[in-house]
Amino acid sequence: MIVIEARNLTKRFGDFEALHGLSFSIEEGSITAIVGPNGAGKSTLLRIISGLINRTSGKILVMGEDPWKSEYLPRKLSVILDKPFLPPFLTIEDIIKETVLEFNSSFSDAISLMDELNLSYFIKNKVKDLSTGTRQKVQIIFSLIKNPEIIVADEPTANLDIVSRFEVYNIFLKLRKKMNTTILISSHIAPELIAISTHLLGINNGILRYNGEVSKMIRKDLLEEFYIVVDNVERAVSVLRSFTIEVSGNQLKVRGNLMEIVSELIKEGIRIFYIRNSLLDKSVQGEIGWG
Ligand SMILES: Nc1ncnc2c1ncn2[C@@H]1O[C@H](COP(=O)(O)OP(=O)(O)OP(=O)(O)O)[C@@H](O)[C@H]1O
């Protein structure tokens, strides 16, 4: 089922046209990576879908409604912004209680989410005393408390380290599996994001360059080969013995499902410094005519 549909969608800021007649559709239960270079129009598109700004012309329907006018969508759609705004003088616990009350959802589910993102320690802290990354994770939790049917996330993991990023991806994957939630995530090119996404929407200079399934756009072998630098190569090789690995210095070339690889390493306390897949980067950049 199509949950988001755009036809000839255009956005102008004064004389500047940021989106040029985009037409695409997003299927229910998909995870769509919205990728493109700086200034491509990713945030503008996500803001229109979320009803935060209005389009200049064209059509956009989200769950059959115009997001700019709908009173129903704000209860069904959650937005995660790259610069979280949360009331600085409230504690996380205060905000959770208020949000749970407002959306008639479960306090214990919210606490489980806090545990999954390793935030329980901060529950009595005021927002103003949290680090940027922790604030970002708190915003993600608040956006999930209302059990949204659609999540629109603009660079949600920009301030997070690798462990936290994968905690967030895990939550998104679980939500999709359990509730068939539709998720849109924007990012500068990030192989790890594409590895967890089902669909890809590539924009460059306000023009839609690609919209479709990841598996149709990218060769399967590129989605399953990663270069990973860790703090303890010997232990990592032993932990990942069920995967195909090549070692070069402190870098591992591992073939397999990225979520599984990373979760094995994290479980064993192995520190990951970076994950790369430059062929995947190049393949996506080539498709959307960037770089
Ligand atoms: N309120 C605004 N007024 C004028 N121009 C704007 C406004 N918002 C965005 N733009 C312009 O529209 C273009 C698209 O911006 P947008 O933030 O959507 O890009 P982006 O792909 O999200 O970029 P980044 O990855 O750097 O966040 C840019 O050229 C930006 O300068």
UniProtKB/TrEMBL annotation:
One GO MF term: ATP binding
Organism domain of life: Archaea
Sequence ranges assigned to domain ABC transporter in this UniProt record: 4-230
Classification via PROSITE patterns: ABC_TRANSPORTER_2
InterPro entries in the cross-refs: AAA+_ATPase, ABC_transporter-like_ATP-bd, ABC_Transporter_VariousFunc, P-loop_NTPase
Nucleotide-binding is among the record's keywords: yes
Family annotation (SMART domains): AAA
Alphabetic keyword roster: ATP-binding, Nucleotide-binding, Transport
Name by which UniProt lists this protein: ABC transporter ATP-binding protein
Organism of provenance: Acidianus brierleyi
